[in-house]
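User: Thanks for the earlier help. One more: CoA-binding protein. Can you show the sequence and predicted structure together?

Assistant: Of course, both are below.
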Amino acid sequence: MTHTNEQQLMKKILEKTKTIAVVGLSDNPSRTSFQIAHAMQQVGYRIIPVNPNVEEVLGEKAYATLTDVKEPYETVNIFRKSSALKELATEIVQTDASYVWMQQGVSDEEAYNYLTEHNKEVIMDQCIKVAHSILIK
């Protein structure tokens, strides 16, 4: 995986998180976002879908934006193109989420720096499901 400090942060996030807001969660079971969110739901995390194009995913009401979600969540898991991250980062800092997890293939150094400057702990370019399977026993 990655260096020790990042592994420690991933483990901390996975252990402290009960609810994950998944940005870009598709309601299509063949999509990676659906499969990974479903797997995380199966191991006990509550999933809050954030996608303006769906009404419900995995039995949970979907929200158009993170700021529309009124219930608490600790982690934002991002399944969006890297080009959307700068705009999304400004929305994330308006939330109470402590952690931001950008899925494999999703990264942006400016967004990362902006989020960490606003006291968010961030993982970039890593699969949350893979990390969970390796780090949580």
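User: Great, one quick takeaway?

Assistant: Residues 27 and 57 are 5 Å apart (CA to CA).
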